[in-house]
Request: fold
Amino acid sequence: MKELTIISGKGGTGKTSITAAFASLAKSKVMADCDVDAADLHLILKPEIKYREKFYGGRIAYINKDQCTECDKCREVCQFDAISEDYIVDPISCEGCSVCVHFCPVNAIDFTEHLNGEWFISETRFGPLVHAKLGVAEENSGKLVSLVRQQAKLLAEEKKLDFVIIDGAPGVGCPVISSITGADAVLVVTEPTLSGFHDLKRVVQLSYGHFHIPTFVCVNKYDLNIDISDKIEKFCQIENIDFVGKIIYDKIVTQAMVQGKSIIEFSDGAVAKDITNIWKNMGFN
Ligand code: SF4
Ligand code: SF4
Reply:
């Protein structure tokens, strides 16, 4: 079983459309949506939830007013200004460090598990999907990403499937690190703009330079700026990174998404051919 994570330097590069196309192309796989901060793979895959579980990503402080003597010690030691003048902990500001709990002289502070979101195992027309929903303004998405990946791997092992195909988080922060560490391969999707090229270098430095994960690169909407597309391809050659293809710009990608279909289901035109070639060039057909 192989794990492939599709990532990008920022959101909106077409990463999810490409992931959904791979869902159409791979015969034996589990899909995982690890872009938990902005999950949208479900819009194409239309999952039917079979199992759901609450996700507790950490602990936060809770002050019992009937035990509190209002000595103010907790407010003095809290580095995050999370406790109000009337001794109420703001759950968003609380970092769960537990310092106040240790300093409270009358044990008035509980350190309770905090509900961050929910994760799901679903069925789709392409096979199983593991995905999640983070609560509004919740953090700990790195932990939730790890959980989604772990569950997808377990499912693939249990059902003896060949691939885990992961829609990873964008950027270079904690969620993307959780999306790629230990993966068998990473596909970086970029666009031919100066900022896209800049973001690509940072992501490649992370996946290939730092974690030494086999890294592939493709350019989406390459014909919007052929000069920068060529520079990206050249950069990959110099850095010894597998450049696996370019995808032409076509409005039908948006039309397919609006209709809840992968581009492979929607059309057999140039975009579908370009993505099929990328899949083959990675050696996954
Ligand atoms: S657990 Fe830490 S961050 Fe939260 S209120 Fe207590 S001291 Fe502040
Ligand atoms: S340290 Fe404990 S007793 Fe003192 S104000 Fe905070 S919660 Fe209340």
Summary: The two ends are 14 Å apart (CA to CA). The first strand starts at residue 2 and ends at 8. The mean pLDDT is 92. The chain has two domains: 2-46+125-281, 57-115.
